[in-house]
Structures
1.
Amino acid sequence: MIDRIFDPEAFEQRWYQHWEQSGAFRPQRPDAQPFTIVIPPPNVTGSLHIGHALDNTLQDVLIRWHRLQGRDARWIVGTDHAGIATQMVVERQLAETQQPGRTAMGRDAFEAKVWEWKAESGGTITRQLRRLGASCDWQNERFTMDAGFNTAVNKVFVELFRQGLLYRDKRLVNWDPKLKTAISDLEVEYREVDGKLWHFRYPLEDGSGFIAIATTRPETILGDGAVAVHPDDERYRRLVGKRCRLPVVDRLIPIIADPMVESDFGSGAVKITAAHDFNDFAVYQRHPQAGIPLINLMNPDATMADTCPPDYRGLTREAARASVVADFEALGLLDKIEPHRHQVPYGDRSGVVIEPYLTDQWYVNAGELAKDALAAVHDGRTRFVPATWEKTYFNWMENIQPWCVSRQLWWGHRIPAWYGPDGKVFVAETEAEAQAQAGAGVPLTRDEDVLDTWFSSALWPFGTLGWPEQTADLARHYPGDVLVTGFDIIFFWVARMMMQGLHFQGEVPFRTVYCHGLVRDAQGQKMSKSKGNTVDPLGLIEKYGADALRFTLTAMETQGRDIKLNESRIEGYRNFATKLWNAARFAQMNGIAGHPDLLPPAASQPVNRWIIGEVKACATALEQAIAQFRFDAYADAIYRLVWSRFCDWYLELIKPLLADGADAAAAAETRAVAGWTLDQILVMLHPVMPFLTEELWHQLAERGDLILARWVATDALPADAEASADIDWLIGLISEVRSARTEVNVPPSAKLAYAVDGATPETLARLAANAAAIERLARIVPGELAAGGRLAVVHGEATILIPLGDVIDLAAEKARLEKALAACAKERDALAGRLANPGFTEKAKPEAVDKAREDHAARTAEAERLQAALARLG
RNA sequence: GGGCGUUUAGCUCAGCGGUAGAGCAUCUCGUUUACACCGAGAGGGUCGGGGGUUCGAACCCCUCAACGCCCA
């Protein structure tokens, strides 16, 4: 028996274990059409936050829905090694436990520590995904650092190198002095900072005066290689081609003209420090004849290097800045200091100021790979939903820069490149191959660096399927159908999967990219640990059940918007689950059980024919919602069917049919239809609320699992317009009578007699056929039209007259009728006005004109009846 | 500076060319044997401002404003 109390904790984990152990997440369906999703692999360091909960709920809805459709649904799962993040976590842990640090223990020992840590803590997030109900293919779980992935990464690296699409280059990178590694453009965040603008003077070589420059970074003066002015700037035209003397360093540097210089910034002359500024580096490249030196001023930790004058060596950037300013001031060459607000680059992981830094790094020619990735979205091989994200994708892809893929870390895929004694590089998938290239006996040293984490996650859609082996899985599940992810990693990840997928598989990695928004708190603030406004999805699951959280996230997922998560919504959907639980309990108490067939039993009762039509309409709406990725519409349609149709009306309307002494055949039919309907509800709700529905599915009958059941036979279901009209009429009548009763203050419990005026034979028949339901729900029964005050309820062409004798509140009834009349007359007149407009009748669509005529006639008649009722009141 | 998005009931959001919707919240009533995590009923919106197109605009176009995000 279904328990009186709905308690999600009682069955959620039990069902999950059953599904996983029975292989339900990946049923053997070799003949079915595959449906494939690859999970955005969560960081192995991480734990489930609410953003994961959203992302994975949506994926699970899609996977479960397609599984119910009979598809060979497969949700490929795994975790990401997350280079910097994981290395930081483990280093922090070593520090906290007073163990030797990374550099003290050495590379091999440190790597072993990370693997140890992964074995202990790496399962946290995958356990939490199970708690959420994610029906992933755990049997083939992957990790971006496992051996197969390493093979794939090496192969990709080597092939790109051979094709000239990957190369080693010395250029400026975004250098993180805390982590002592290069990072990519995307890992830099610009913050607006209140800084200063220092104005200095450099003496001209010929002693004829000075040239004034302004800078936000005085410490880099030590590396200046030129002063630049705009070619059209009259003030400086005569100085171009001359030289000035760099104070403190005492070096002669040229004055050059370059259109990059903004004449209205500062003095209109800027210093050029080619090794510490991206713009300056570009100037350096444009002026090879000027002989601008590239002076790397700093050590990897951003202290001043031996390339600086002796007094500066070893100072931090900040100390060197103060020192330079003081030295200029002492020389009388400091003009002024102005407050200046500007953008400063920070490392998104370390939070320290990024230093443009000249080093040797490996780069991928992203511009070349982007070509097909752009074309694939332009020609629709991959589409974005919502489509607006295409613009973001295009915009970035069209302006893509070389991708720096090497990282000075220890945790990650080590770069498969070896160097000979002369520095010659040998790129190969294995050391043996590199040795073969170099020649036997040549001593080789492997590149110390590892690859950017996104280099391996770019291979996720095919690396997970066994590539470079040409596996059956790869043939069957690549390309995937849908990628579900947050818009914030379109650049980081989606774009790179597109590039690598197209390049190495010749096909896009997925047909559709569904981008959802961010989950924010109830005030619309971005959630962050530092603000302390994060919500823990596990806590919410414990409080309300996983189903309620899933339903909430699904219902709130409207395309193109962030989600403002309010706990009251979760509570509301927990109530919804309780409502269905109780409805099923009621059904069971009345001998209603699961139905053995996909198709509904034959039905003669209008209420039964009606609910079958409602199921058909709902299923159709749900199918459309999935096709359009309208998760909110999915939740809305099933919520409405369950609560506003099935519970509010169907169950109430069938109570008389199931009562003692009711017609046995009608009762049997009703039990069968009710059972069938409940089954369809469970199937349709299952993708969103898998636990509750599976539990009830088994409570209602002995049978196989719902997770592997079949979707509603939508097309085969009858839609009975006549039954639908009957029941809509009945619902309308009951609602109007209830409303009227309340407005004239008739106690809800009072059972009243009624008579009817102006009814057609059809209406009289409907009143008779539904007498029991009307008595139960409107609390009126046919009777004599006694004298005295009457309540008049106009419904369609008929007026229901309910004599109330002296009890009636005449004033209230008069007010009620007047209000109804006013509303009706207003609509009538608006329609009349429209119909009187020749522009409308001539130009509008004929259907619109016909509808207006019909509505106008109906409103006119209704107004007359209300008028008559008012007249009778006197 | 460039681009994108948002602005509809107290709150969160649907609707995107033919009479303004949902959930929550509010108010009134109610323990009729599934459910008070409930039932019945009610109130509440000149759809950000202005202009235009159209027989007709929350919906299309232009413009302004506010807020948010991304890129430089």
2.
Amino acid sequence: MKQLKRWWSAGGGLLHLTVLLSSGVLRVDLDLYLLLPPPPPILLRDELLFLGPPASSAYELSPVSTSGGWGRAGRLHPKGRELDPAAPPEGQLLREVRALGVPFIPRTRVDAWLVHSVAAGDADEAHGRLGAAAASSAGGAGASLDGGGQAVQGGGDPQAARSGPLGAAEEEKALAEPTAQVPDAGGCASEENEVLREKHEGVDHSSQPEENEERASAQKENSFQQNNENENKIAEKPNWEAEKSTESRNERHLNEVDISFSLEDLLQLLSSQPENSLEGISLGDIPLPGCISDGMNSSAHHPVTFSQAISQDVNLHEAILLCPNNTFVRDPVEKTSQPQEPFLQFNSHTTNPEQTLPGTNLTGFLPPVDNHMRNLTSQDLDLNIFDEIDLMSLLATENDLDQIDISQLFDEPDSESGLSLNSYHNSTSVTKFNSSPSVCEGATGYSSDYDLGAVGGYYQEPSKLCHVDHDSGFHGDLTFQHVFHNHTYHLKPSAPGSTSEPFSWPGKSQKIRSRYLEDTDRNLSRDERHAKALHIPFSVDEIVRMPVDSFNSMLSRYYLTDLQVSLLRDIRRRGKNKVAAQNCRKRKLDIILNLEYDVCNLQAKKETLKRERAQCNKAINIMKQKLHDLYRDVFSRLRDDQGRPVNPNLYALQCSHDGSILLIPKELVASGHKKETQKGKRKERRN
DNA sequence: TTTGGCTGTCATATA
DNA sequence: CCTATATGACAGCCA
């Protein structure tokens, strides 16, 4: 329990545990399971749906939590069960829990209280609650958390909290069976069993009311029957899968030794849960991203209990085979023989009805991905992980499958391809994980980091092909993880027939696939098709946009054939010229538009000038008229020496320089004008 | 079928 | 000399 406490305090919890998936081993996040109430809400996108009534009618819906994260819906909990009255208020709990940095956002007051207790150092008490929770849920109520609350309510005594409905023998059986019956429980199984047994003996002393014992026993029996069936099925799996499992476990064990104890401790609690509770627990409630949730779902829906899955350290490949809805199940008999749980159809977390069509296989596709042939399909990655397929074949396989624009299929509005063409130095590509089981969409598309790519024929560790970054935290729904892709490809051209697919597309999926391949091929540009044909490990956009230094270094660094180099240069030249042509046309259009604008402006200015000219002429005419009138008026008042009126036809008025006005005969005025004009002409000639 | 617009590409000039 | 850019010209596609 100290290890549990230390593990949790060190930031343990779901995130910490799921990091183990990087080794390719499915590891269940038991802590969250313990924190979840048994009635399984199924997460359909962002909403939690409660599928059908719980096993017991004594359930009620708790208020919707607004704690953020994935606590968006109310949860079922047993009626009449109250929380620990000594527990702090929910708001305070949430604040304290958040302050502790626990990577789990409690949704209910009970969650918060449990997390708070564990993270704050009260691990023993919390364990008591957890144990009581598990025991209580095993009693049929299926409310682990609230059962814990009840245990706490019973005085907060750890002993009282540990009390459960099961007898010691039954609990020992329950704890021992999941691990003991698994033939290949891993190298650390015996050691873990010892620890588990010790803990079990110290913990599981039931003193719960006897009314729960009968229900618990009945459900336990059902659970064991299911376990046996599932174990038999697991035992029938091919040897190579078992070997892989063992290898994965051994590898993982080196890294997990510090927390394996905690896992078993949690397993102990889980093992005491009734089968229906376990079976009902869906990862839909837990927004486990990507492969994790997928694997969990597969385990949940398949008649293999979580206990088995956990104790066996079921690897991803096994998880694939365990999923009845899995599109990559290679044994059709096994696929079709699995009972379909009623809520299975919701596990695709999609609103597209095509996904729920049996045999469509579309659930296995990754959500919208970049169309630039950068993504390795789920099938490819599947093979990479489990079959250690050569990357050469990956390259060939992607030829067929990487172009499928799943966004058109599944309408993932919040999708992000993450495979940014411009992220030259970002080796982490974001890829969404589909909720479909075992679809670890390692979009190991073309490298966006030229320094990391080993195009010349080397590939890095296969384990890195699908590294799930669980530090990225949770999103609101069953979303996706950042995947560290190894964009490493061989450039060996593959024969046309080498584009074999790791699985067959049955029926309708085949048609859909071919249709989308046609569409995507049609949408590809000529250079893209050429690059694809020659397996150029870079997108056209990258080739065009990368600096010349990077381009040259790329040409020199990687082993490229002359044809590939020529094609790369042509692609780059054409791409740049295409951009230049676009810019040129845009510029030309801008110039034309500017010229048109200038023309309009000039035309408007011309019109304005015309109007002003007309106005000026009009004013001039008015002034002339007024001057004429004034002239007439002056002459009408003029008299000669004899008192007679002056004839305006013989005389004219002339203004002198000093401002005086002279009455001059017109003959003189005409001769004077002639003289002045002659003088002016002379001056002009002189000048 | 014709036509105009859009786009990609090539050839060439220029910086 | 190489590269990037700009631009005219041409061809193909499409509404």
3.
Amino acid sequence: MSDGSRTSRMRRTSVWLEDRPEARRKASGASQTEGLDREKITAAAVRLLDTEGLARFSMRRLAADLGVTAMSVYWYVDRKDDLLELALDAVEGELEVPDAEAEGADWREQLRQAAFALRGLLRRHPWASGTLGSFLNVGPSAMGFQLGVRRVLLRSGLPEQQADGALAALFSFVYGHAAVEESWNRRCSEAGVSSQDCFDALRTALGARPEYTAGAEAVYPVAERDFGVALECVIAGIEAGTRGGRGPAPQGRATPVIPPQPPSPEDR
Amino acid sequence: MSDGSRTSRMRRTSVWLEDRPEARRKASGASQTEGLDREKITAAAVRLLDTEGLARFSMRRLAADLGVTAMSVYWYVDRKDDLLELALDAVEGELEVPDAEAEGADWREQLRQAAFALRGLLRRHPWASGTLGSFLNVGPSAMGFQLGVRRVLLRSGLPEQQADGALAALFSFVYGHAAVEESWNRRCSEAGVSSQDCFDALRTALGARPEYTAGAEAVYPVAERDFGVALECVIAGIEAGTRGGRGPAPQGRATPVIPPQPPSPEDR
DNA sequence: ACCTGAACACCGTTCAAGT
DNA sequence: ACCTGAACACCGTTCAAGT
């Protein structure tokens, strides 16, 4: 369980890799209605994150919500980051793990559903995309979902060596897209401006700079439609890989596409 | 220039949309060797971010590096976030804008180069992916690069309505991938553990949970190769779109793929 | 075993004051 | 025009002490 880093003051890489003293895993058997435990604290953290956002989430506010002193929480959790990891995996429990062996299941449609489900989650809990860029996201719910999607992907006929690349294309894209969308929403709402107004201002500002007049009219908000188009793009790319034609075929081909002429040593 | 939000205490959506009083844009004409200005402050910020990371970057430390009081910086910059936006666009100036009209240029190869260049940038300045999820990234360098890549994309023959979806697929993917990679690197190095050790620990931990034994052996670090595979996947998807076959064709087709059976109203 | 209070070493930012 | 010092309202976290 340990990641071998538990010397003196070293940090842990993830809550999910902690050596938790048995003593603290809840002394008496079942749930008591009185007193705190990790589940109650995590649930309160999710609630606070949902209502206040990541920036205003603090241990002191959380403790206040729980009607307890700020430092009580530290009995159950080593530090704030651990709590954020717990909260992240808790909401990821909302994801339905796709069943690759389901009757008549189409892998394309299952991938679409998984991608939209993940995006829906990141929209319902806007703070989550902020934590995804900081933590490992290897909690039980996240891993279950990821491994489930991986099994679906393998049913497409994609060679196993390419499965993780395709998974990366799918998940990194959904995550990146959600993160960008979220930062637009947050910034605009903090400024009390509609996303449309903000974009109009941006187009005007760019139009004033001579170097961008070519193309500035193409600037507009992250459109609803773009997500679908981009997703189909990724899925079509996976499909191309299954046909062995153009597509994600990394090695052993006449014209190896990876890496094609390194532009700079450190970039590839 | 203004985004219409400059009432009383409202925040701005971006530094790039500020109304900057002419008085503060540098009084006398050219550069002086003495005294501060935005360029010097931004350069110092990039230096500090590169050496210390986003978490340890503070206005007080920056001011100390500049040999000045913490509050002097606020004469040139409204708040810390503005400075981070300036630093982000400053490093994005390292990106070479592709020339869509170049002789004998292949759009696929140009897209590959752009993607690798962006990833290289995010690796040289690991803090940058952390800011990309928080700010609008609409500075002059970022916009120049993005519009340049967009022109390359259009030369593929992809219909204009799909260009932004394809751009989103490409950029969101590179950004998401870099962010995940960065969080692994940072977490492992903070714990003083190699990425490999960390993954071994994770696999062991997952193996101990009965629900993951199926597939746990598939867990391994974000591989170097995955990025290339995923990138080819996106490019193949774009190419599929240009052939009008399967691929990112959003509307007006026999079997509309977007949206296919909404799983839940809020998710699509 | 669980919770508290006081304290430490920081933050970003405001504001009145200096030159 | 530019820079400072003191202050405000917070942080995460440690630690000794309570029950």
4.
Amino acid sequence: MTRKPNHGLREIARVAGVSKSTASRVISGNGYASAEVKERVLQAAEALHYKPNAVARAMVTKRTYNLGVIVFREKPPIVSHPLYGKIIDEILFASEARGYSVFLKTDREMSLRSTDFLLEQRVDGLILVSRLQKNVIDYVKKFHLPYLMVNGSTDDPDVIHLVSNDETGGARAAEYLYGLGHRQFFVIAGPVEHRSHSLRLTGFLRRLEQLGLSEQSGAVRVIPSPESSFDTGFQRMEKHFSDFRKYGYTALFTTNDMLALGAMKLLLDRGVQIPQEVAVLGYDDIELGRMYSPSLSTVTVDAVGIGRDAVELLDKLIRGEADLPKLVEYESYVVKRQSTEGKE
Amino acid sequence: MTRKPNHGLREIARVAGVSKSTASRVISGNGYASAEVKERVLQAAEALHYKPNAVARAMVTKRTYNLGVIVFREKPPIVSHPLYGKIIDEILFASEARGYSVFLKTDREMSLRSTDFLLEQRVDGLILVSRLQKNVIDYVKKFHLPYLMVNGSTDDPDVIHLVSNDETGGARAAEYLYGLGHRQFFVIAGPVEHRSHSLRLTGFLRRLEQLGLSEQSGAVRVIPSPESSFDTGFQRMEKHFSDFRKYGYTALFTTNDMLALGAMKLLLDRGVQIPQEVAVLGYDDIELGRMYSPSLSTVTVDAVGIGRDAVELLDKLIRGEADLPKLVEYESYVVKRQSTEGKE
DNA sequence: CTGAAAGCGCTTACAG
DNA sequence: CTGAAAGCGCTTACAG
């Protein structure tokens, strides 16, 4: 494809009657230039539709002002994932505000492919979203590139990560439902390998135990679920529906909203009254929940804070600031809606 | 921030005992090299953790293998927008498959800012998502950069755009509801400035007219809506609820799913039976719809096809292929679910 | 305040 | 098959 020749600095320097160095100084805003020269250069740039070449600049400054964001997920909803999407929106927004552009990559096979690409692109830093294997972290470390993790799990003490305080959130969920008078709990718990799911469950169960309710006593039934999707929630509920009704559980807690919505849909399809017969409480505070009928009560995840701070922290890392926290935790709060409290 | 010195080609050439030129040839895979030399170079690269510098390469080849995607939207849900998110997921996937990385930008003010950034980054091509002002198009044109538009509207005959066949989709919606026996239609129509909303409405009304039903005869009532969000759908329905019930409309069609969901939620909150009393039909086929209770009948938008083809077409444009279509249309089909047909 | 020169890390004709 | 050289479009000390 033939393109209109992109006039470079040399050309505008020629037109303005100055040297490349001087033209560079006024275009980049670094260094001195007399008002009169400045004027001439700017005019030439304007006239020639000059666009600075960021690639060339990056080559010499060793700074691209580009960030890489990689979302590790096996299944298709990636950017359009209701929670990750919110976080990514915020990352884009915060990056823009700080002058960074972002490369967005997804990785379905937890491979090193996307990471390699971004390394070659010489991004200034990396944001890794969702769970990821240790090999990815080790790989990134090897290249001494600033990076951090969002909403993922790792036992590597070196890596900076931003997460919700899921255990406390789980406890708040238990407390809230208990306060509403519930004593028989049904729980659908997402994959234990995933930090957030397992901590939410732990927090929930622990608090109930403090309140005198346990699995052993039959007051709590936990159904493990290998995935955390809507369909899985639906299927889990379908499979255990008769037990569910038989033992008179009055509250359903799930470790995320998608599971809750799936399970709730099954219940609604079967004509169960929510919340009159069963109260339902999710976790994540995704948009869908608010829109559902009945609207879904949930526990918040501060997607805005996480996205915003991820960029801020990474920026500090890039600029070489020391003493950055390794772990940033966000508080989770119960949002009361129709699925637990009825009509608003 | 001090980084481990990134060994360049020169260094690995030195270690392998060959010239930079030769090292370049084996690393890039372009040009000859004896098996023995190849071996030595590759080993040196391995040993020194060599990562080719894509920035330097781009500078000389004038090809970045980067694509820019800009989503023009005023309000926050951008990447996390249920329809755009799906399209973007697909764009990312298709780009990856063709060896492109993508810069994702959002633009809330319909400004030239994001476009400028990407121009400076020397992306190989641009995908513009959603409606956008003429000035943006004119601006991009000026720089002779390959670009195309997705899901937007323009009367500029030069610009390649990929859209749904919304008019036919609207007609199919009308036909479907009519076939179900409905004769009194209530319609909530999104912003007329937006191509898809206006065409869907046109197609819907036109088909009904052919079937003998019109606004004048009182068989169809159209409520215009300045926005196309869930909340707006809810509010529109709320405002017109008494009329809605009074005149016995049995079918509600909206020009997208979000409006449908909002309106449906209001109806459900008010105890209206769906679909027994009112059938509801949306448009877009977003995930939420299938998850809702009752699940929302809708008309499809081929997000997968649009995203995939956008990248394919742009790739062809970049490679200078001629005779590319200016307009690619995707068929829309009715998806029958509970909100029109009851329990599955 | 301004210019000449070197260099960022590659690729690509061109000789050999 | 391999190497020397030029050059991509900038920035940045360094002189002046």
